[in-house]
Amino acid sequence: MPHNADDATPPPRGCNGKIGPGDASGEQPEERLDSASADDSPNKHLNDTTVADYLREHPDFLVRHPELIETLVPPERRLDGAAGGVVLDLHRFMLERLRGEMRGLRDSHDFLVTTGRSNMSAQARIHEAVLAILSAPTFERLIETVTDDLAILLDIDVATLCVERRAEDIDASEFEGGEIKVRGLHRVDVGTVTRLLGPKRRLLLREEIAGDIDVFGPMAGLVRSDALIRLSISPVTPPALLALGARQVGAFHPQQGSELLEFLARSLEITVRAWLDLPD
């Protein structure tokens, strides 16, 4: 019987006339994401249960990593009260307080470290200044060390040495515009030291002031903070004053430790007394 082309059944659609792995129509399935790519993640097995199990097995985890306390968010639980009311759980508040204490301790630690470094720097500067005073080969060089070098050594802007004049001290040949020819050494009016320090005060630290022209001379306009230290050189000498000035407000302040400045002043007193062969 001859073959009729019209009776031929068309081959099913698909690759090479074959039914593919899709549905019965032979259509290809939609491409699926490769699950292996998700398995490449380092956290593929990390979930709440895994983390909880790890913490149960390592109860000291937060002890070893206390910084995480500030990262974790504590739960805010509400408990039913015995009388049917609502009682807030205090755990959250306790944790917040602990965090605050930790921040305070950290700030205190940072402050102590900063203060310690500053004190070490100040101590080194004072020691260097004292060595310079003791090393002066002449009395004139000693005065120049105080009035010229001290400001550089102490990282301030001006240092002066003031001595009250007495009536018998006034000699025009010694003065040039009210100042002894040794630069930086000022003769001030009787009572100036008491006016500035009072009758007994040894040292005065002022945080914010306008520089005293009697003390700092032409540099007074630069001074915004100062340290004034009484010098008791000898019973036979007039009152004297070591003045340190800085342009930065707060360079000296009342809360500042004074032991190093006292040591500097005491060293200067002894050295001047030795050079002038004065009784102590």
Mind summarizing the main beta sheet?
A: 5 strands, mixed
* The CATH C-level class name of the domain at 110-276: Alpha Beta
Strand content: 5-15%
CATH superfamily of the domain at 110-276: GAF domain
Which segments are poorly predicted (pLDDT under 50) over 5 or more consecutive residues? Answer: 1-8, 11-39, 170-181
Shape: elongated
Mean pLDDT: 77
Supply the helix-strand structural class. alpha+beta
Which bin fits the share of residues in helices? 25-40%
Sheet with most strands: strand arrangement: 4-3-7-6-5
Under the CATH scheme, the architecture of the domain at 110-276 is 2-Layer Sandwich
Distance between the termini: 149 Å
- Gyration radius over CA: 42 Å
The count of helical stretches stands at 8
User: How many beta-strand elements?
Assistant: 7
Topology:
Elements: H1 35-39, H2 48-57, H3 61-64, E1 78-80, E2 86-88, H4 91-134, H5 139-153, E3 158-164, E4 185-188, H6 192-197, E5 203-206, H7 213-216, E6 225-231, E7 240-246, H8 259-276
Pfam families: DUF484
Region (Disordered): 1-47
InterPro entries: DUF484, GAF-like_dom_sf
Describe this protein's structure.
The chain is of the alpha+beta class and 280 residues long. The protein has a domain at 110-276: GAF domain (Beta-Lactamase, 2-Layer Sandwich), CATH 3.30.450.40. The protein contains eight helices and seven strands; from the N terminus they run αααββααββαβαββα. The protein has helices at residues 35-39, 48-57, 61-64, 91-134, 139-153, 192-197, 213-216, 259-276, and strands at residues 78-80, 86-88, 158-164, 185-188, 203-206, 225-231, 240-246. The chain has a five-stranded mixed beta sheet with strand order 4-3-7-6-5. A hairpin with an 8-residue loop joins strand 6 (225-231) and strand 7 (240-246). The longest helix is centred in the middle third of the chain and has 44 residues, at 91-134. 19% of the residues are buried. Mean pLDDT is 77; it is low at 1-8, 11-39 and 170-181.
